[in-house]
Amino acid sequence: MTIEGPDTGINLFAIGDIHGCLLPLEALLSKLPILWGVDYLIFLGDYIDRGPDSRKVLELIIELKKSYPERVFPLKGNHEWLFERYLIGLDVNVFLYNGGASTLRDYLEDRDLKIPQEHVNFIKSLPLFLETSSYIFVHAGLHPEKPLALQTEEDLLWIRQRFYYYPGKFPKKVVFGHTPFPEVLHLEDRVGLDTGCVYGGKLSAIRLPDEELFQIECRRR
């Protein structure tokens, strides 16, 4: 997916991995100096699993997307990918091992699993990346030896060291999540925004192009 970038003079805000941490997300959104309906808001994936409020996080993001369909862009993370596969009976144990049980508990009603079709459709519809004139937003990163058109789901959702330790330079700044760092990884051509909120770190956002950071301290779950 491609949109016009910050060369238009409009700010872009990107938010790192949330993992069911609703209260920090609400606090961060209230802290962002975003002009709703004008600025862009990009979520980098991993809205669910491990934290206490995965369902409510999804509901909040779905409502934001409904309210500002041309300005709010949630991307797919590897945890949404695992959830999607779980729903069709694939990689069940992998999903559960990676924190999926906490998500399923949010959808239990009288001991029955009831997942709204709207949530299923939302998960399925999430794009793998967003490109602007100056940036690429993606969950995990890019395979450094492939053009964007040839990147696979595995590259975009799961890559780690091969991407962020890459000694070369990417043609556009890559804003990503997936790998938790103690602080925002801020390189010339790479910005890592997963600061481990669900592990007691921070929930982080960045405003582009001025690169101001916004953060909320999180309690360990």
TrEMBL record:
- Sorted alphabetically, which Gene3D superfamilies does this protein's record hold? 3.60.21.10
**Gene Ontology BP term (one):** RNA decapping
Limits of the Serine/threonine specific protein phosphatases domain: 75-80
- The species is Caldimicrobium thiodismutans
The UniProt GO MF terms for this protein read:
bis(5'-nucleosyl)-tetraphosphatase (symmetrical) activity; phosphatase activity
Q: Matching InterPro entries, A to Z?
A: Ap4A_hydrolase, Calcineurin-like_PHP, Metallo-depent_PP-like, Ser/Thr-sp_prot-phosphatase
Give the Pfam families listed for this entry.
Answer: Metallophos
Top-level taxonomic group:
Bacteria
Q: PROSITE patterns this protein is in? A: SER_THR_PHOSPHATASE
Example GO CC term: the record gives: cytoplasm
Report what the protein is called.
Answer: Phosphoesterase
